[in-house]
Amino acid sequence: MKLIDQVSPGQSGLDTLRALIASGGSLPIADTLGFTFVDVGDGWSGFEGKPGAHAYNPLGTVHGGYAATLLDSACGCAVHSKLGPDQSYTTLELKIPYHRAITVETGLLRAEGRTVTVGRRAAFAEATLEDLNGRLYATATSTLLVMDR
């Protein structure tokens, strides 16, 4: 089931995301990669995941796509939290500098996304990916298209 199918008429993006977290619901991509949508507020969101060997690349570290997915999710849901009931969004651009390698030994990671600006047609967000000790693993900036549903 898509998240959009769970939206009540007139429900804001923030209310939709809060209801998803409260219901214990998850996102299919989060299930696939083993991370969780844990926090959301007005203009921000948080995801947590513990990378496993399932996300390894041939070099013996976690594939960059794992970090990218957490960061893209955090940016997207930060923007989603600012949208009205008749709005939607999609990522247009995602830029990610990787600061250090992620391995199974890294442990729990937290991606936190924040809106920079949300306009009528475009939104800008940024996110960080850190471990529990505050070590930075990756950052992201994102441009998102805002559209009518």
Descriptive account of the structure:
By secondary structure, this protein is of the alpha+beta class. It is 22% helix and 37% strand. Strands 1-2-4-5-6-3 form a 6-stranded antiparallel sheet. The longest helix has 17 residues, at 64-80. The two termini are 17 Å apart.
Give the helices and strands, then pairings.
Blueprint: H1 13-22, H2 28-33, E1 35-41, E2 44-49, H3 64-80, E3 87-95, E4 109-118, E5 122-131, E6 136-148
Antiparallel strand pairs: 1-2, 2-4, 3-6, 4-5, 5-6
Number of helices in the DSSP assignment: 3
Strand content: 35-45%
How are strands sequenced across the largest beta sheet?
1-2-4-5-6-3
Distance between the termini: 17 Å
Summarize the structure.
The chain is of the alpha+beta class and 149 residues long. Helix content is 22%, strand content 37%. Strands 1-2-4-5-6-3 form a 6-stranded antiparallel beta sheet.
Keywords:
single chain; 149 residues; alpha+beta; six-stranded antiparallel β-sheet; 3 helices; 37% strand
